Amino acid sequence: MDNLSNSDTGQVEISGEIYKILYVNDDETYSVIKIKDVNNKSLTLTGPLGGAFEGQGITAKGSWEEHPDYGSQFKTTNFKYSLPATSSGIEKYLASGLIPGIGSKRAKLIVSHFHEDTLNILNNYSARLLQIPGLGKKTVESIRKSWKEQSEKREIMIYFQSLGISLTYYKKIYKVLGEHALNTVKNNPYLLADKISGIGFSKADMIAENLGIKHTDDKRLIAGVKYSLNQLSQSGHVCYPLSDFIAYNSELLDIDLEHSEKSIQLARIRELISIEKISSNDQNCEFIYDRQLYISEVVLAQIIKHLSSVSSHKGQFISGLKYKSKNGTKFNKEQLDAIDNCSQQAVSVITGGPGVGKTTIIGEIIRRSIALKLKIALAAPTGRAAKRIHESTNSPASTIHRLLKWDPVNKTFVHNNKRQLEIDLLVVDEVSMLDLNLAYSLFKAIKEGTTVVLVGDVDQLPSVGPGSVLGDIIKSNICPVTHLTNIYRQDSDSKIIPTAHSVNEGQMIDLVNNKKGKYQDFYWIEQDDPEKVSELIIKMIVERIPKRFRFNPFRDIQILTPMIKGICGTSSLNEKLQSALNQRKVEGINCSNRFLKAGDKVMQISNNYDKNIFNGDIGFISEINIEDKKIYVNFESNIIEYDFIESDQLTLAYAITIHKSQGSEFPVVIIPFLTSHYIMLKRNLLYTAITRAKKLLIIVGSKKALQIAISNYQTELRHSGLLYRLGK
Predict the structure, then answer these.
(1) Using CB atoms within 10 A as the burial measure, which of 23, 91, 149, 469 is most buried?
(2) Partner residues linked to 246 by β-bridges
C-alpha cells in the first residue's frame, strides 16, 4: 500500500530518516523536511509531504533542483513512509502521540533501555517493559494494549501518510469514520472535506491526486462545484451569476469550460445546488446557489415578511405605556420614533453609529416591556457583544447560539420552526454581524406575534459569513427603520467617537495630538515603514502603555490589523508578541505553523457547538498537558478542554484582523494602518476598527493610507437574492 508504483521516467529515488520538519503550510499540501540518508548526509525534501513526522523512514521519488536561497532541494512527487530503525527515530516516533499512554518521557525511558530493539520488544515481548524502573504493571498493560490496537491500524496509517494524511488527520478520520475510513478514502477522498474538520477541498484534492484520481473525474467535478461556491461564500456571496461562475469554477479547479459546465450539471442532478433567475446588484440573470444557502434565503425572506405583517404583536403597547423613564431621562424625536416603531410593527430596526443612544433605547424598551410583564430575550451574535449589551442594560443577554440551544447529539438547534422560542420581545444587537445562515436559524425559531427589534450599525463591516442581512432588511422597507444620528456618549475631551463619525462621513481625521504630557484617548503616530511600525507596537504594548496608562498588556490591549500576512499582519505580530509577552519556560505544541504554550492569548476560529465556544471567542491557555495531549483554555472563567487534534481551532490572538473584531470592544486598540495594506484600505474597515476602542485608541501608519481608506467608500460586492425576495 504505497504510491511509489508509478514508473516516472527521469526521476531518482532517495531514502532516509526524517529528523526535522521545517515547514508545513496550513492545509498540509506542501511541506519542507530534512532527512539523513544511509550515509548520514542531510538532505532537504519538498513537496506534498503533509503526513510526515520526525523519526519515520521515507523513500521518495523526484528530482533535484537548485533553490536561489536554500540551495539543493529534492522536489518530491511520490513517496512511501516506513517505521523508524534508529534509536532517535524510534523515540521521536513513540513520542509523537501515536500511542496513547506513551508521551515524550515514557518514550525516552523505553528507548534508552531497549535502543534499536524497542519496536521488536513492543511487538513480541511487551512483558519486558517491567524491567524499566518506574513502569508498573498497570502502565505496562496499558501500553501493551495500546500498542496492540495500534498495530492493527499501523499499515493503514502508513498508507494514509503516504497519501499526505498526517497523524492528526488520521486520528480525526478514524474518530469519525471508524472501520469505514480506508474504503472512504480509497473510493472518494472528497467526502473527507464534508466529514472531517480541517480537511478542505485542497487537502482532499491532494489525497485524490496521490490516489491517481483524474482532474476531470466526476467525483472531483461534483466536489469542486461545492468548493467553488464555498470560496465565494467566504467572500460574502450567497449566490453568483451563473455565467460568471462557470468561468470562476473553471479557473479555480483548473478545468476547461466544458467540464465546468458538466460539473454544474452533475451537482444539479444530485440536488447539491439551485439555479434561479433573480435580480441582484442590478444584474437580472440566472444565479447559482449552494442548495442550503438557497433554502435559507428563500425561507428567511418568507418568515421576515410574515412576522412583520401580523396585525397584532406582544409589544404593541410599549409606546403608549404611561411610564416614567429611568432617572427622568428625556428622549429626542429619533429615540421616541424607535420606541413608537417597535410598537407599531412586529419587526423594526434601530441603526446608527457609536454614541448615538442605541443602547439607551434598548434599555428603555426593556424597562417598558418589564412593566408590561413581557417575556424578554436579549441576544447578540458573539459572546463579547452579548456581554457588552448585558453590562450596558443590566439585563440578561446571551449569544444567539445559546439562545437557540445546541443539541450535540442531533447536531442541530433545539429551538427551530417546530419548537419555537417562548418569548414576547426579542432584541438582537450587533445585527450587522448576522450572516444568512444564522439569521435563518434565528428567525425560524421566532413565534408569530413576537415583537422583534433589530439593532446594529449598518455602516460597519458586513458579516464574516455570506449575505448582508441587516442592509437588505433596511433597503427593502419591509419594516420601520430608525436612524439615530445625534451623538450623546462622549466626554468633552474624548476624540474616539468624533474620529469614528468623521471617517464614516468621509472626512479626514483630526490627527493633531494634544500638548505633551496631557493624557488623551486618541493618538496618531506617523510611520509607514512596516518594520518600524512592528517594533513600535511591541514597545508600546510591553513598556509604554502599561507604564503610562496602567493597562494590562494581555487583557486590555488589542491589536487590530487589516491583514493576516505581511510584517504588520496578524501572523508576524502574534509571533513577536508571544515572544515578548509570554516568556514562560513551559512546554508547548506546534500546530499548523504556530506554537502554543500556557499563558498564550488565543482565539477560537470556528464554531464548536459541542463545546459551546464560537468563532471569535478570546481566551487564555491555562495549561497544556503533554502526556495526556490536552489543552485547557480559560474563556471568561469557563475552562474548555481541547484534544491536541483539535488545536487547529485555536490561533494566537495578541493581534487579530479587524474583521474578527466585529461585535467586540477593548479598553485599548492599536491599529497599524499602512499603504502596504492597500488592497484592504476601505472606509468601513477603518470605521469598524476605530469603534472597537473604549478608552484608548492608537493608530500607527501613514496619512496617505488613511486618505485612501476614507475616500474609498465602495463596499464589497455581495451577491444575494434576499433584497429581491423581500420586495416580491
Answers:
(1) 469
(2) none
CA-to-CA distance for 430 and 351, rounded, in angstroms?
Answer: 10
Length of the chain: 728
By the 10 Å C-beta count (0-12 exposed, 13-18 middle, 19+ buried), 7 is classed as exposed
CB 156 within 8 A of CB 181: yes
Quick: pLDDT tens for 41-91.
Answer: 999 999 888 667 788 888 988 999 988 888 899 998 888 888 887 888 888
The beta strands (E) that lie in 186-268 are given as 239-241
Map grid coordinates 521516467 to a residue. 9
pLDDT the model gives residue 524: 95
In contact, 683 and 504? CB cutoff 8 Å: yes
Q: 1, 5, 2, 72: which is closest to 32 by C-alpha?
A: 72
612 phi-psi bin (left φ>0, alpha ψ -120 to 50, beta other): left
- 640 φ, ψ to 5°? -110, 135
Name the DSSP class of 649. G
* C-beta pairs of 636-644 under 8 Å, 24+ apart in sequence: 636/383, 636/387, 640/611, 640/613, 644/97, 644/168, 644/589, 644/591
Nearest partner of 388 among 669, 665, 691, 689, judged by Cα: 665
Q: What is the pLDDT of residue 384?
A: 84
List, for residues 399-434, the tens digit of each pLDDT value.
999 999 988 888 899 999 999 999 999 999 999 999
Q: What is the Cα gyration radius of the chain? A: 29
Calculate the alpha carbon distances from 594 to 168, 567, 591, 648, 651 in Å. 15, 16, 5, 10, 8
